[in-house]
Amino acid sequence: MKIIGLMSGTSADGVDAALVDIGGTGHKLKVKLLAFRTFPYPAPFRARLLEAMARGTVADVCHLNAVLGEWFARAALRALKAAKVPPHRVALIGSHGQTLHHLPRPRREPGLGTVRSTLQLGAPAIIAERTGITTVADFRSRDMAAGGEGAPLAPYLHALLFRHLSLSRAVVNIGGISNLTYLPAHGGLGEVRAFDTGPGNMVIDGVVRYITAGRQTFDLGGRLARGGTPHEELLQTLLEYPFLRRRPPKSTGREEFGERFLDLFLRQGKLLGLSDADLVATATAYTARTIADALKFLPRRVEEVFISGGGAKNPTLMRMLQDMIGVPVRPIEALGWDGRALEAVAFAVFAYQHVKGVPCNLPNVTGAKRAVVLGTYTPAHPKR
Asked: Do 80 and 65 form a contact (C-beta atoms < 8 A)?
């Protein structure tokens, strides 16, 4: 069946839409990417969204849930129009939504014990109504209800697509947050290990926005970092951050590495007299070091590393990773996939597995007590 996967990550810079053809049963699927588009949020809307993540009121959250539903529906329809595929030929939409807040570590609630929570915005009812396509959404919540962290989820797709018979691999997605998937040679789903390693582009982007007064939102081509020198003392201080020392399973987001962390980073950098270029270089080196250091949590050494997400387009970051890891580090395109599309493809796969009744969380990754079917189902209008 043809399915659209929709995704907006922790960078909150727009909606990724992947049109995917999927067939097969159980965990033996054939997955083919038919088309992929990214639809950036307008700068004022992105600013509102980031503000809501930091200090949003209940009214802000209520309104943005509906507005994001409209944005996601529009992205799906525009992707179909570009691919010249009519909506009636698409069986499902799998929408991750936009994470507003993610609290994977249990919090004690009087009378109830401990509770984990997560909140993704982008009303699936609006997506189904506007597109006429049955929509599956809210994929993290079921894993959390089963005792897991609700993330990362994409390692299931990495295992389906990228396992190798004789080589142990790591797949690292560098979006706003970085996450690492370990795929042992000859390994099955039960042997996959994965977790968030820390910040991906989030801190780098924040520093660039600060030093350019918002004129730039990311370090294009890694040019700013290339012109600076990482400050080793600041790096060592930041590498003591508690999340980095925690053993997996673990996941994170803006709650750990968002605005408060960025303020701390910038204050420390200014106290040390770092230039603008040195600040960007240090933030880039921090991302690279947290990824390289995360390899110590793996049961065995990997023989090759593949990078997806926006970080793969940063040559300075890729060069730092190669120097620090010491095994071949290549973009995921070397395996024949568009790295920008992978997470959107994953949510198309999750929607497919939802209607097939196949669990596709990985308890050994998220810490859930059992494998569960992910997502909630919002049917299209019966007269579609």
From this structure: no
Per-residue pLDDT tens digits for 191-229: 999 999 999 999 999 999 999 999 999 999 999 999 999
- Angstrom distance (rounded) from CA 281 to CA 256: 21
State residue 248 phi and psi, 5-degree precision. Answer: -65, 160
CA 50 to chain centre: 16
Question: Are 268 and 283 spatial neighbours (Cβ–Cβ below 8 Å)?
Answer: no
Q: How many CA atoms lie within 13 A of 260 on its CB side?
A: 8
Residue 357: which CATH number?
A: 3.30.420.40
Provide the domain limits for residue 58.
2-150+340-378
Longest dimension (CA), the chain: 65
Question: In Å, what is the CA distance from 331 to each residue of 92, 318, 326?
Answer: 29, 9, 15
Kindly report whether the global pTM for this prediction surpasses the value 0.90: yes
The pLDDT value given to residue 381? 85
Residues 191 and 244 in one domain: yes
The pair phi, psi for residue 78, each rounded to 5°, is -70, -35
